[in-house]
Amino acid sequence: MNQTKSWDEVRAAFQKIWGYEDFRPPQGEIVSSLLEQKDSLIIMPTGGGKSICFQLPALLQTGVTLVVSPLVALMENQVQELIQRQQKAALLHSELPSWQRRATLQALAKQQLRLLYLSPETLLSPPVWEKLSQPQLQINGLILDEAHCLVQWGETFRPAYRRLGTVRPALLKHKPPGTKISIAAFTATADPSAQKIIQTVLQLQQPEIFRLNPYRPNLHLNVRIAWTPRGRKQQLLKFIQNRPGQAGLIYVRTRRDSENLAAWLAEMGYTTASYHAGLGATERRDVEANWLGGKIPFVVCTCAFGMGINKPDVRWVIHFHAPHLLSEYVQEIGRAGRDGKPAEALTLISEPTGWLDGEDKQRQQFFVEKMRSQQQKAQQLIKKLPQQGEINQVTRQFPDSEVALALLHSSGQLNWLDPFHYKIEPKVKTQPSTQLPATQQITQYLNTKQCRWQFLLNAFGFTQETTNWHCGHCDRCR
Questions:
Q1: 75 vs 67, 124, 253, 296, CA distance in Å?
Q2: Which of 190, 191, 189, 184 is nearest to 206 (CA)?
Q3: b/e string for 48-81 if b means 16 or more Cβ within 10 A?
């Protein structure tokens, strides 16, 4: 801890900036752990006040804290809030106009920032990396926000996540001797295997681990069979009709699903909007603002929506299609009922054989097949790649190689020497991708006969809490 800061001063800053009286447990413990520059892994349910836990320590220290965040909307929401509170925060991402990027990089070089938000890709882009490596720039810590993205996406479409473990040692090479940079990973959901992956990939050193149970007594879980595609739409419609004017979210798998379903609901006379990663920045912002402001009661969205967006009065979340992973599911249902009042989470699935409606089965198989083929591509590529290489040269020569390198890293066949150079490790016994058993887990959850919350708590490693336990308010308990 910067020895000058007493705990009274820390609390005074918390009250002055955010206006809250005092910390909710375990916020205080997390803040003091980060002020002492310890590595940490923090698992707190959505809406638990995670961001304050890393923003406050960053604002109390001299130097800058880097916040690696997966989505532009997420960074913008947090940075806007900080700027409204007159705090020295900025963001960098690929959609920004160049003048704004320049201004932010200048402010960084002049040590005028306390928090800098960026995506893993931006962090590792040459112009930004060069600035961060300046010996005189003081970097206190690296925060990985929404750290489950490293596990969910690090092997597939965000391979830069797998290179983050080498960031600290690479930066320290350029800094004065004795410099400390701590790393903290924050997420709402991580089962024991995800916790291990996060710790290993980030190379956390004796991290302090804070784990809060994801159970929410006000959130009622329900899984229903829809026998046909038409029946699925009818169930959705009936559910919405019975809850006029309530705020909700409808999750689907693909952009096309999101557009088609939103169009159909509009024909049925509902004010809604489709939201997915393919929308432009302004369109995304408009949908968010309209939903947050209550102009649109619900949005039909893919998993790109909702991360870090805080709307306390969401009364229901429907999974029109089941997600592929249990961690996604818990993230998404966690957006309902943050105000503590009753909320519902409904998932619609086709009957187990998939005869009458094979779409769910096809979706799951497509996902698993895609992962298998990526694995195979990676194993073929390893034969052609140089034993040691530099990522930008290699990706120019082999256009699809970035995902393959991430997969090889996750199976222990490749090491990152620094964020840009890898070395292939011969003779390593390969471990299959972590994602395949995870896809079976969601199927077990959807078909379980036991209390749904009990299943989830077990899956996320809270086994002691669940012996002889029933929530009493999911469809299985009722």
A1: 9, 17, 24, 23
A2: 184
A3: bebbbbbbbbbbbbebbbbbbbbbbbbbbbbbee
pLDDT by residue for the chain (478 residues), tens digit each? 444 579 999 999 999 999 998 898 899 999 999 999 999 999 988 766 889 999 999 999 999 999 999 888 789 889 999 999 999 999 999 889 999 999 999 999 999 999 999 999 999 999 999 999 999 999 999 999 999 999 888 888 899 999 999 999 999 999 999 999 999 999 988 888 899 999 999 999 999 999 998 899 999 999 999 999 999 999 999 999 999 999 999 999 999 999 999 999 999 999 999 999 888 878 988 998 899 999 999 999 998 787 767 799 999 999 999 998 898 899 899 999 999 999 999 999 998 877 888 888 888 888 888 888 888 888 888 889 889 999 999 999 998 889 889 989 988 889 999 999 999 987 666 555 555 567 788 999 999 999 999 999 999 999 888 888 899 999 999 8
Strand partners, 67: 117, 143
Report the sign of the C-alpha dihedral through residues 339, 191, 196, 467, in that order.
positive
First to last CA, the chain: 50
Q: Cβ distance 101 to 107 under 8 Å?
A: no
d(Cα 272, Cα 261) in Å, to the nearest integer?
Answer: 10
Cα separation, 443 vs 124, whole angstroms? 37
Q: Do 446 and 453 form a contact (C-beta atoms < 8 A)?
A: no
Report residue 453 as tokens: 């919350």
Candidates 311, 323, 309; CA nearest to 251 is 323
